[in-house]
Design goal:
With 442 residues, the protein is an alpha/beta fold. It has a domain at 63-326: Aspartate Aminotransferase, domain 2, CATH 3.40.640.10. Helix content is 38%, strand content 16%. It has helices at 2-12, 19-22, 48-51, 60-71, 84-96, 99-102, 114-129, 146-150, 185-201, 229-242, 311-326, 329-350, 386-398, 423-441, and strands at 27-31, 34-37, 42-45, 105-109, 134-137, 168-171, 212-215, 218-219, 225-226, 246-249, 273-276, 288-292, 354-360, 363-368, 401-402, 404-406, 412-415. The longest helix is centred in the last third of the chain and has 22 residues, at 329-350. It is globular and about 60 Å long. It starts with a helix and ends with a helix. 4'-deoxy-4'-aminopyridoxal-5'-phosphate (PMP) binds at residues 50, 113-115, 118, 141-143, 216, 220-221, 249, 251-252, 277.
């Protein structure tokens, strides 16, 4: 029974545990887009390890790659010593990155999680510039360790921690639906750009020369918010003009999820630093920071750590990257994502609580709002409705669909299915979601 495991978990695991509170199952098996709980109930997994499972659960190429490491008795642990398996991973990753970026790039292997890669990126740009402050974006998410949490543009998870990095300046993200300037659309985006440009140029504007700027191209945990390509290009132009290293956090967007192998490719920019984790380890823990060689100013040993790359993760990662490329999964994500977007727009028209449907590729969000209430005083949109979003999540769960909530008010339903999901499977997801919304609204 699920209950037995959940009771034990609740008794022994910390109060900080998160997903089990909303997805109350113990998982026994998993295959492709499906997970099966200990009671034998099957669920479609549209959380996908929070964007990690590009190939779904236990994909044969991943299993095969891991088995090979074991069968060949390859070393399971080597600190950051090199091995043929590691070399193969580096080669595969570098040839996947745009040539313009990869040709002058260096890689640093980090601890196993995305947050570790963000920590390393922070140290890298601080070392290279000698500056201490950082620029980040409202609604951004970069991890839960001390430094990465400091960069989070959402107060919620930061409230209980006194003494985070104080020198972080948060800039407005082009979140059209809740535009920080009271105007959505193109005009709001342009005002946002001008605002940022002025801040960067005004020596009395309160921004001291920063060590770097960090941003997501599509905010993930922030609620599946894509930045327009033109805005991304403007940010690149401004940071370049001011000599500010630009760190693109591709931890969630990387490896095909948004319809390109890397989300920064949509705008055609070349970042100074890219942080990667989640999908690149083929469902095993792996995190790296890849950056322009000019920033490589830290001393030998400046970023050490016991677990910096795991042979099985390298093998699984190489197999995953190859499979994504050889099977055109980025284009597939784009196609299936458009199908889901259009179905969700239909659902929006048939129901009463969906404020906005948005996303890019298979990184899609549905903002649940309270349409009973008047528009807010800027006339922008209806207030967020986290309780209803929660009910929708529970109704989906009852019907065998796992989805996650995100956004600044936990009111955005997020879809992050494995990239291998088929058109028929996405149709089922939409059908279940429609029923769930109708039931939750009733
Ligand atoms: N950056 C982004 C954009 C993320 O989505 C996440 C994880 N959701 C992280 C960083 C942190 O990664 P991890 O949870 O592996 O530390």
């Amino acid at each position: 029974k699920n209950e037995q495991y959940l009771d034990s978990q609740a008794k022994r695991e910390s109060n900080a545990r998160s997903y089990p509170r909303r997805i109350p199952i113990a998982i026994r098996e998993a295959n492709g887009i499906y997970v099966k709980d200990v009671e034998g109930k099957v669920f479609i997994d549209c959380l996908g390890g929070a964007g990690t499972l590009a190939l779904g659960h236990n994909h044969p190429v991943v299993i095969e790659a891991i088995k090979r490491v074991l069968d060949d008795k390859l070393p399971l642990h080597t600190l950051d010593l090199t091995t043929p398996v590691k070399e193969e991973f580096v080669e595969e990753l570098f040839t996947s990155l745009p040539e313009k970026f990869a040709k002058n790039a260096r890689i640093q292997f980090c601890g196993p999680s995305g947050s570790d890669a963000v920590e390393a990126a922070l140290k890298l740009v601080k070392t290279a510039t000698g500056n201490r402050s950082m620029l980040a974006f409202q609604g951004g998410y970069h991890g839960m360790t001390h430094g990465s949490l400091s960069l989070m543009g959402n107060l919620g998870p930061k409230k209980q921690i006194p003494g985070l990095m104080p020198d972080v300046h948060f800039l407005p993200f082009p979140y059209d639906y809740r535009c920080p300037f009271g105007i959505g659309g193109k005009e709001g985006v342009e005002i946002g750009q001008t605002y940022i440009e002025q801040l960067l140029h005004d020596p009395e504007g309160g921004i001291v020369p920063p060590a770097g700027m960090i941003m997501e191209i599509v905010q993930g945990e922030g609620g599946a918010i894509p930045a327009p390509d033109s805005w991304v290009r403007e940010i690149r132009r401004m940071t370049k003009a001011k000599g500010i290293p630009l760190i693109i956090d591709e931890i969630q967007t990387g490896l095909g999820r948004t319809g390109k192998l890397f989300a920064f490719e949509h705008a055609g920019i070349t970042p100074d630093v890219v942080v990667l984790s989640k999908a690149i380890g083929g469902s095993l823990p792996l995190a790296v920071v890849v950056y322009h060689e000019d920033l490589d100013k830290w001393n030998p040993g400046a970023h050490a750590g016991t677990f910096r790359g795991n042979q099985m993760a390298f093998a699984a990662g190489t197999a995953t990257i190859k499979f994504v490329k050889e099977n055109g999964l980025a284009a597939h994500a784009e196609e299936i994502g458009s199908r889901l977007l259009s179905q969700l727009h239909d659902i929006q028209a048939q129901t009463h609580c969906i404020g906005e449907v948005r996303g890019r590729g298979l990184m899609i969000g549905v903002e649940i709002v309270d349409k009973q209430h008047a528009l807010n005083k800027l006339g922008q949109n209806e207030p967020a409705h986290p309780e209803l979003a929660n009910r929708i999540q529970q109704e989906c769960f009852k019907r065998g669909l796992i989805i996650e909530l995100g956004g600044r008010h936990s009111s955005v339903v997020r879809f992050l299915p494995p990239l291998i999901i088929t058109a028929e499977e996405i149709d089922t997801v939409s059908e279940i979601f429609l029923e769930a919304v109708k039931q939750a609204e009733a």
